Amino acid sequence: MHLYGTQKINENGHLTIGGVDAVELANSYGTPLFVYDLELIRDRARGFIETFKKLDVKAEVAYASKAFSCVAIYQLAQEENLSLDVVSGGELYTAIKSGFPAERIHFHGNNKSYAELELAFDTKIGCIVVDNYYEIDLLKQISEIKQQSMRILLRVTPGVEAHTHDFITTGQADSKFGFDLNNGQADEAFQQVKDHQFLQLLGLHCHIGSQIFETDGFSLAAEKLMQKIGAWNKEYGFECTVLNLGGGFGIRYTEEDKPLEPQVYVEEMIKTVQAFCAKLNLNLPEIWIEPGRSLVGDAGTSLYTVGSQKTVPNVREYIAVDGGMSDNIRPALYDAKYEAVIANKANEQKESTYTVAGKLCESGDKLIVDARLQTAEPGDTLAIFCTGAYGYSMASNYNRVPRPAVVFVENGQHQLAIQRESYENIVQNDLPFTLNRG
Asked: What are the residue boundaries of the Orn/DAP/Arg decarboxylase 2 N-terminal domain, all occurrences included (predicted)?
């Protein structure tokens, strides 16, 4: 059994996280329940930051908060001296409400609204990552009306396809994101912003995909961006002060996954950028990265209570849990794979094979197919590992199922970070039918 971060098996044979018994957490807070190991998140964040410091390279490590957003995780990011990547007005509003320093917030998105961009200006965030010509027009309007400057990066698609799932590759040419680096779009965007009185162009941004286990893609993307920066420097004297190479660093979900340590990705990026700066006689820009999944993914564990069971003779054995695709859509959406353990029997041998089904009214609501587990009984606590990224953040009220609670654990202590939704929460925005049917 592969354990993550502070996970251990205690003398009672129970899984513990952050020094806290997972079964006690399930009993105290109910299930489904997301449990985050804060020590592991801190270790991951420090690993990225310290690598840049060790190599004496100026940098910002921005938590890509679409992976998991809430007030408490933003406050933890601030404690660890991270910057913050937000992709919507809602994430930006949450960050501001959390007290996160606005100057360390970067705003992404391929269709930011006028109102969202106004909020970015009003809260004086640190940078907007510009995605398209429409957005350039909006930024010019808002900045001129407000007579207010804004730092920007141009997001480009470098034409690099990472070895990852088709649904989560974003750096290739056929993408809804960014200006194409190879067909003149990036050059046109550069021309539109380079001399604007209020838009301060820092440099370029790219993101080549997610759950990447190799450094080659990042190095190739950095090479392509540096070539373009070198061309702009030679022709226009443009000085790039920031190069943002995105995120997408992989984590281990199952034994098939072979992730690299954070510093390996960082070191390879830096080598490539340094080599091109020397070759083109350019100053080394700040290097920004945006880890999301690699900060919180394997720090999150989902706890469920086992309910019904069904045997299909000579086919499979089902166990059903009290959550499912409403709190983890990734298996249905991406065919994502996970490993699990019966948390109250964690020291027993895994002798049975089950398909773990959710309670949602969809035949595709399966969290794990053919999971090797300890023999399961109704009332057992099932722990599914590595659900910290894109679990809660993509959760829904499908079938009017309330969203789970979220708990943080560290050094034997635990704290509620997000309350469990109630049925009343679900109907609070519903209005009665009042149309005149006469």
From this structure: 48-296
**CATH 3.20.20.10 residue window(s) in the chain:** 38-296
The predicted model scores a pTM of 0.95
Was domain 38-296 assigned CATH 3.20.20.10? yes
Alpha carbons 218 and 269: distance in angstroms, whole number: 6
Judged on CB neighbours under 10 Å (0-12, 13-18, 19+), 399 is: middle
8-30+299-427 has which CATH code? 2.40.37.10
Q: Report the SS3 class of residue 331.
A: helix
293 is in an annotated binding site: yes
- Least confident residue range of 266-270, 397-401, 434-438: 434-438
Residues 6 or more apart whose CB falls under 8 angstroms from that of 67 comprise 292, 293, 295, 296, 297, 388, 389, 390, 393
Check whether 135 has a pLDDT greater than 90: yes
- Give me the mean pLDDT over the 346-364 stretch: 95
Q: What does the pLDDT look like over 55-82, one tens digit per residue? A: 999 999 999 999 999 999 999 999 999 9
Q: Is 290 annotated as a binding residue?
A: yes
Listing DSSP states for 108-163 in one string gives: --SS--HHHHHHHHHTT-SEEEE-SHHHHHHHHHHHHHHT--EEEEEEEE-S---S
Rounded CA separation 315/148 (Å): 65
pLDDT at 160: 82
Q: Which residues are catalytic?
A: 361
291 labelled as ligand-binding? yes
Q: Does 248 count as an annotated binding residue?
A: yes
- Our measurement of the distance from residue 240's CA atom to the centroid of its chain's CA atoms, rounded to an integer in Å, reads 27
